[in-house]
Write a structure and sequence with these properties.
Elements: H1 2-50, H2 56-62, H3 71-83, H4 96-122, H5 125-132, H6 135-146, H7 153-171, H8 183-213, H9 220-245, H10 250-257, H11 262-289, H12 292-301, H13 303-314, H14 320-347
Helix pairs in contact: 1-11, 1-13, 2-4, 2-9, 3-9, 4-8, 4-9, 5-13, 6-7, 6-8, 6-12, 7-14, 8-11, 8-12, 9-11, 10-11, 11-12, 12-14
């Protein structure tokens, strides 16, 4: 009996260790996808505008129009589960109680896409990236309200620093505004980007809340299904905007006048859509493996990378005010990260979600 008990304990230990190992590997994979999308997406999106693209609805539509890319990994996951003997597996297992929240989140994501695309069309990538850094503060606030996330002194300090950094950018726009951009257009882009940051700061904890309220096991396959539904409704929202604005007819016209060539125009559109799917799937995957706050942390972590790439590829100006804002943003991130690291070190090992 003692031998059998010991054997069962060993088997349970191995099973839990495998779950933790799989979960860590999955978390690392989603962090990589989030990094690729978060750095590459804004750069390609800005490239569209500076090389001749003008339609904001087209740019916002591309942020989620790449959702068909997710069908292939979903099918591969389905075949793998079938092969491992899980005969009850379905290709699409999302139930109605999850479908409706995902549809609502999709519409909100579509609105957020438009706000973000408008901001990128008016602002340098480095400036919009700094404003988006305030998303961490919004994520923290909504996480507190929606999923009862506890605040700490580090979180409060982070919110204060990020807010001050954004204010500095707004008050010193004259040193950063592109030569062809009016002050009014610059401020429109500034506040549109800030609005996008706030809205996505609400969306991330809402996804975590949806996980918690789900009446079915949350697997990674289900996470991909949810992302497909969210992206589908976001794309539908932006499609309506494109139809009203007649942007579909503008695509071939823009392609002919694109500074990098007609073929390159379509490549830019496709790569743009692919990068943003990496971003969205990575973000929701990190929420699945850890929390919405960690997803926001990673997005803020990648800020210096996006800043550096924008200056490198687009030769954007980097005045003193932007440097101060960047320093405050990094300081706020480090403060927040340290506080979250201390908290998550205590809670990360408690309760493993099912990974499939």
């Amino acid at each position: 009996m003692d031998s059998q008990t010991t054997s069962n304990e060993q088997a349970e230990y191995i099973h839990n260790k495998m779950n933790r190992t799989t979960k860590k590997a999955l978390l690392a994979l989603n962090c990589i996808m989030l990094a690729i999308g978060n750095c590459g997406g804004p750069l390609v999106q800005r490239l569209y505008f500076i090389k001749g693209g003008k339609e904001i609805w087209i740019s916002s539509w591309l942020l989620t129009a790449g959702w068909p890319f997710l069908i292939l990994p979903l099918i591969l996951s389905f075949l793998y589960q079938k092969r491992t003997g899980r005969n009850d597996t379905k290709l699409f297992s999302l139930k109605p109680n999850l479908l409706f929240p995902c549809a609502v989140l999709g519409v909100l994501t579509g609105l957020d896409d438009y706000l973000a695309a408008y901001g990128v069309s008016r602002l340098p990538v480095s400036t919009s990236a700094l404003i988006i850094a305030t998303q961490l503060a919004f994520t923290a606030g909504f996480a507190f309200l929606l999923v009862k996330q506890k605040f700490s002194a580090f979180t409060i300090n982070s919110i204060f620093l990020l807010s001050i950094g954004a204010v500095i950018l707004g008050l010193h726009s004259s040193t950063d505004r592109p030569a062809h951009e009016s002050r009014m257009k610059y401020y429109e882009g500034f506040f549109m980007t800030l609005g996008a940051s706030a809205l996505y700061g609400f969306i991330l904890p809402s996804i975590e809340l949806t996980f918690k309220k789900a009446k079915q096991p949350i697997t990674y396959s289900l996470v991909m299904e949810m992302q497909i539904v969210i992206s589908f409704f976001a794309t539908a929202f932006c499609t309506i905007g494109m139809l009203v604005n007649r942007d579909f007819k503008a695509i071939p016209r823009e392609a002919r006048t694109f500074k990098l060539g007609e073929d390159t125009y379509y490549v830019v559109l496709m790569v743009n859509a692919l990068f943003w799917q990496f971003f969205f799937l990575g973000a929701i995957g990190v929420i699945f493996c850890a929390s919405s706050l960690l997803s926001g942390i990673i997005i803020a972590t990648l800020l210096p990378v996006t800043e550096s790439l924008a200056v490198l590829f687009f030769h954007e100006r980097f005045p003193v005010e932007k440097g101060i804002s960047l320093t405050l943003s990094l300081w706020g991130f480090l403060s927040y990260f340290y506080g979250e690291f201390r908290r998550m070190k205590k809670t990360y090992s408690n309760g493993d979600l099912e990974v499939a």
